[in-house]
Amino acid sequence: MTDKIRPFVFSCDAHVAEPPDLFVKAMPDHLKQYVIHSEAQGDVRITRIGEQVILKINTNFHAHKTGEGDAAFNAQAGGGASADRACTDASDNFVSDCAVDTKRRGARDLELRLADMDRDGVDAELVFPSLGLMLPRIADREGQATACRIWNDWAWDYTAPVRDRLIPAAMIPCIDFEDALAECQRTAAKGFAAFCLSEGLNNYNDARWDPIFAFAAQQGIPLVFHTGVGNINIRALKGPGGALYNYTRQMNDAVDVITQLVAGGVLDRNPGAHILFAEHSAGWLWGLAERMDEVYNGHAPSISPKLSRLPSQIVRDQVHLALQNDGNSSMAIRKGVGIDALLFASDYPHAEGTFPFTRQVVDKLVADNPDVTTEELVAVLGGNAAKLFKRANLKPQVDARRAELLAAA
Predict the structure, then answer these.
(1) Which among 187, 253, 273, 394 could disulfide-bond with 217, CB atoms 3.0 to 4.6 Å apart, if both were Cys?
(2) pLDDT in tens, 184-225
(3) Closest CA to 183 of 175, 172, 191
(4) Can you tell me the distance from the alpha carbon of 140 to that of 161, in angstroms, rounded to the nearest whole number?
């Protein structure tokens, strides 16, 4: 693999930053108490819904990998400190001293975003909101549905000039099943390639999800879950060890949703529906699949509804996870749940993601897993995304890059 000839890289977890006043301006007057907005107060950025404080984060959150400025960050990333330099030369070769923007201004500037992607070796991304991650925290049915429509319309228009590289996920209101289906239908008509549902609902065993999953299957649109998007206690443990505990347990939210959808039969009844979990890691999926089989067989008299396939087969057929820095455990589970379960993610612009080290992360994945074939690498880095996000029309690009790679081998 070279910098020029490499698999097509698709990140199934990235973000754009909507205008800070998007919801302030667009929410109708009678719903102003549900406006999502944020402001910096000293070293802390506070996000509110109306007057209710929802989240507090440090304003220097993105810089934590070095704790210093651009020069130190560029040195760590293996690049020079030259600002605003193009990331590829005239022959499309990667320029090693392309500067890193530690402020991640590409989150809100399309030109800078494409430069960051080029520097990082990322060809396309599925993008989620920033402020809009708090949409499920709006407890009012009309307020949540309206705010989702506002973000979806903005995201569709914003990404229009670069939709071959930035594919927005539609945010779906989940207080009411009819509202959820209606927004799926509306955004599908626009052309969206992914629906984002909420975690923490504790009701994914409910048959009322069937029409939504059936519609997604019929349209060829996957249902995506992003960590922390929902009524989730993201700071469940306070005090010593809190950060390590709280970030680690994010995988538990995905375990809950998968197990409910399998146990309740929603996935079994809708075999064409696919679900993807972003930012929950991936290496645990094989263990979950085997555990569900063990329970399904060992506690058979208590199991209801009965399924047409073993839980592990449903997982292999319909469940997908994003891997990030967890390449070794993730690649190991392909032997149990199949290579189709795995998709790559960078989590741009968040500091816990792979930016600006994505090229190095991919190289390490290859070096640490010498038994991974070229075809498997092509699948994980972009091929599986092309199959899952059919409407994004990624397959021609994936196939063309695959052909170049195989020819150069």
Answers:
(1) 273
(2) 999 999 999 999 999 999 999 999 999 999 999 999 999 999
(3) 172
(4) 34
